[in-house]
């Protein structure tokens, strides 16, 4: 009996232990599932926060560009108002001088008529001539009357002309006043738009400052993507330089080693002419897209005017436009390469001799590598980010061999 009780107790203990372990395992499993669920939720929140930071930063860049455009527009309107003001002063001064001249002419004419008031008929004029004491005096009187009559006609014509000039100037002044009022109304409307934009900007900045850590992560991510794009471009340009050296070597019958030791892209006669033509058009190149746009990121190192911790280095310019817009070639050339990189979707390189233009962030491509393109030809459709309100941004770069150039100095802005 004792032995049975011992065995029973041992079995009960083992069962209890096993049950306890099962409960613990179940608890651990649930904890693990909960932790994974929380981790997944955290990752989702972090991803959402990063997307929010990206969207807010893009929105801030967009509004900052809009504010700059708005201020430039108001400055132009103010210049226009200043020109109108100068025109109005000039017209008023001319009216004053004409009015003064007209008054003097009227007074002179009235006095002359008053002095000759007794000669109001042909009979009086004849009596004035024949009452002279001599023939020579009669001749002088006749000539005087003729000259006086001609003077009076000229005076009357001049008075009528001055009146007409004054009427025209008064019309010009009235038109100028109406024009100025319309421009002032436009400026006030633009100032209201600017006020709203600046209010939106302040709100965005306040929100971005609260998510500084996430914003820094987003900026770092974009920086790495930009560096990866630059590395890819440098690699492709170096490959083309080697190919051009091989081509030149075959043409000359020399050694490849000798050709490759010379740096730079070896141009054909046709490419040399194209390069020279491209260079002559500095500051006159058409914009790489049609329609409305704003430059939201400029070339080189840029420190954000509002967010002291935000600093970017751009190898080109970022241009925001409307969804559906196409990127277009800024000059005649040959499509050198087409490739895909994270963050920039499809990228097209167009070669213009030893100059290259780069069109990045395309969702569709309309050309092939090796294809000749002309100025203004559509190259592809610019990508619209559905997770960022369909924001549509083209990254445009301009290189001379491996040297990055500021596109804004070359485009006809």
Key attributes of the depicted protein:
two-stranded antiparallel sheet, 13 strands, about 15% strand, single chain, elongated, about 425 residues, alpha+beta, 6 helices, eleven-stranded antiparallel β-sheet, about 60% helix, disordered N terminus
Structural overview:
The protein is of the alpha+beta class and 413 residues long. Helices cover 62% and strands 17% of the residues. The chain has helices at 2-115, 122-130, 135-210, 212-252, 256-260, 269-280; strands at residues 294-297, 300-303, 311-314, 317-321, 326-328, 333-341, 345-352, 355-365, 372-373, 378-382, 384-385, 391-400, 403-405. The strands form two sheets. Strands 1, 4, 5, 6, 7, 8, 9, 10, 11, 12 and 13 form an eleven-stranded antiparallel sheet that branches. The chain has a two-stranded antiparallel ribbon with strand order 2-3. A hairpin with a 3-residue loop joins strand 6 (333-341) and strand 7 (345-352). Helix 1 (2-115) packs antiparallel against helix 3, helix 1 crosses helix 4 (212-252) and helix 2 crosses helix 3. The protein is elongated, with a radius of gyration of 42 Å. The termini are far apart. The model is unreliable at 2-10, 35-50 and 255-262 (pLDDT under 50).
